[in-house]
Amino acid sequence: MADLQDAVFFAFSIIYTAVLEKNCVVCIFKTVKAAGFFVNCVWWKMYVIFRAVIAIFLLLLYIVFEGHKYTTKVSSAVPHLFLFCTQVFMEGMTITWNFSLPIQLFVPIFYNSRGLFTIDHWLVADFTF
Fold it and tell me: Which part of the chain is the DUF7733 domain (predicted)?
């Protein structure tokens, strides 16, 4: 139920992030170990747990339990879940592959700006009678 546009956005974001890391990041940021920034950070661990519990599981429960009653509302919530899961994947990829800190910070901004459009579509579908 996720749009082709969201799947293309995910594929484009992988390529775009790799190109940014390879060509556009200044060498100063590449010498700093970006993965060490998040290793012992309590706020980062709380952020990851909050996102997993609140965003993914509650949205998944909404889709599973409301799916038989409100198909149009649920079908508009699925692209948001898809984009959110791909954002989690991309953030994990940038941390695991030791991308520079500006790229690691760019991924949530990039996905959240795209996610605003899916949330808008979801809210319009949810509150129209």
Answer: 3-127
Among 9-18, 67-76, 100-109, 115-124, name the one with the lowest average pLDDT.
Answer: 67-76
**Single-letter code of the amino acid located at 66:** E
Give Cα 90 to chain centroid, integer Å: 7
Query: Cα-flanking dihedrals φ and ψ of residue 41, to 5°?
Result: -85, 115
Q: Which residues contact 110 (CB under 8 A, 6 or more apart)?
A: 13, 17
* 1 DSSP 8-state letter: -
Distance from C-alpha of 21 to C-alpha of 102, rounded to nearest angstrom: 9
Whole-number pLDDT of residue 38: 62
Q: How far apart are CA 78 and CA 83, in angstroms?
A: 9
Q: How many residues does the chain have?
A: 129
Distance CA 77, CA 97 (A): 31
pTM comes to 0.75
